[in-house]
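Blinded run. Sample ID left blank on purpose so nobody reads anything into the name before looking at the predicted structure. Input follows.
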Amino acid sequence: MRPDFVGRGDTPSVFLSTAKDLGTKCGCAFVASEGQMRTNEWLLKGPDEVLTASQPTGYCYRLSPGRGQADDVTIREREDAMIAIRLRSILLGAMMSLAVVLLAANTAFSEEIQLKFDRAGRFKIVQFTDLHLHEGGDKDRQTLALIGEILDLEKPHLVVLTGDILSGAAKRQETVALAAGPMAERKIPWAVTLGNHDDEWPKEIDKPKDRRGLMEMFVRQPYFVSQMGPAEIFGASNYYLPIYDADGTHKKWILYMLDSNAYASKKELGSYDWIRTDQIAWYSQTSKTLAQERDGKPYPALAFFHIPLLEYEYALTDAQADVVGHRHEGVACPRINSGLFAAMLERGDVKGTFVGHDHVSDYEAQYRGIRLIYGRATGFDTYGRDGFPRGGRVIQLEENSETFTTWIRLQGGDRIQY
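Blinded prediction complete.
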């Protein structure tokens, strides 16, 4: 289930119920209907207007028994009544504002989003990677503007953020909501895999990392389709997303999301952690279970994670690997090969993998039958390279095919297809 949010023009029934209850307790009648809450006006109108009988939707006013008119009272009683009602209105407004915040953070959506091919038989994904958001500065605004530009050009069915969405953000909830903005505004489903920087705190903050807690913040965002990964396996962002046919009745593709974790526990093991064996076992078992729906034949699949596998490096020196695109830095991968690539070969379902992490590489390698692909780094508040503009990678699936096409969309609208 996806979490709900406030601000789409409707007023949740629990919100209305709360307001009505409060109105009853303060001796006021609450008039409201779906989509017409105007709480702020209560605080702007004068006392005389608050006490009139014919108020716009969303006002508190005192009713006389049976007539729906303001009681005739003495001037002193009227003034006392006005003050009391105004104070109660202010209290009610403050409590309702708090309710908005709580609902936005914690209320679950009542419906699920189903990912499915359009009537033309296409499903388009945009991958953004390495946003490195820092709580809303100028460079963050550049990053979000670029995301919006590409979304408006490509109009995807799904967005995947492949890690390092945050980077040392102290205000995590606010920064996560910032990341959600471009997709929520356009009502586009989106998903994440976590990177090595996402759960880091600023150096001056001494707090333990909380990867699952961060993932829970993402799960509460609007139009978010990711799930919390199984608690019993390593990492927090291990899950899969099925893509259905245009009618929404049969699965056609599977998207595996894997947590590539962060850093190795010992220096002699290299800089970066690896996808653990229990994660690989989860992927293999999930693939087998899903294949039972097709008489043992696995669904075609893609895999998304942040840190590249060692095979991205192996492919560069393999004479049979077809490598296209840019490589302006080394492959910053784990030095331990935990066997994910071998597991994908054995299952025969994953047609391509999509990663980030290395900001100035965007190459693709056709290696041993699997396409190993980098996204194009998106964030401005991190390192880059002159002449290598930021962008995003687009992936298009065909409903009745087990292949896909991909290209890069750059800032300014240019499209690159290797």
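Unblinding after everyone has recorded impressions. The longest helix spans residues 75-106.
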